[in-house]
Amino acid sequence: GASGGLGNTQYHNELGRVLGNLSRAEDNILRVRAQIGSHLGGSLQTHVLDPSCARMHSIDPRPRWQPDARGVDFPYPDNSTRRMTEALARLSADGAARVTTYEADTSTLDAAAIVPRQHLCLIDGEHTDVALRRDFDFCRAVMPDGGLVLCHDTPVVYNGLAAIVDALDAAGTSYSAALLPETLLAIDIGPTGVLDSPQLAA
Fold first, then answer.
1. Beta strands in 83-191 (DSSP E)
2. What are the C-alpha distances in Å from 43 to residues 15, 46, 88, 189?
3. What spatial distance separates the first Cα and last Cα of the chain, rounded to whole Å?
């Protein structure tokens, strides 16, 4: 398929459309990006093929099994960085070269190692409420001036998302939020205004 064997084609196509529209937003503020949870690299392909993405950080501890809020541990066979990077390089060698990988989760990775500051973070790692909140806090740490956080699988981690929004409100944080296609919740901290872009509705 279009994803080159990189995973869920429908999700990646929708994510690609959303990110493509975001990358065309005014001032192109999403040049430096991080993704938590990469697996085969399907959702990274959009960044790899997007010339406006100057740097992509892929954060994934590469577990063989992963807990899930639905009460089932999901298997991730042959879940390796090498397999992912080779697949991405087949799409675009130049684009794959812009991806920096970290075999760690956000509980052990030092946010200071992620430079320069990020403009966009996609959270698609362990689908539990605890992990989601941990990953979101990490995104905040690598986006000290604000930016856009995309959280996948909203029907699975809705309790964690509600807790995140409650915490932002309690802290008086300025942000905007919007539901996007394929179960994505976008939280624009700052806000940057990117969610108001007419390109996003295209």
1. 99-102, 120-123, 147-152, 175-180, 184-189
2. 7, 6, 10, 22
3. 24
Nearest residue to 47 (alpha-carbon basis) of 57, 39, 61, 37: 57
Residue 8, pLDDT above cutoff 70: no
CB atoms within 10 A of CB 60: 23
Q: Is there a contact between 122 and 43 (Cβ–Cβ < 8 Å)?
A: yes
Span 29-56, pLDDT tens digits: 678 899 999 988 888 888 898 888 899 9
* Tokens, residue 106: 């956000």
Residues in the chain, how many?
Answer: 202
- The tokens 């406006």 sit on which residue? 52
CB 98 within 8 A of CB 55: yes
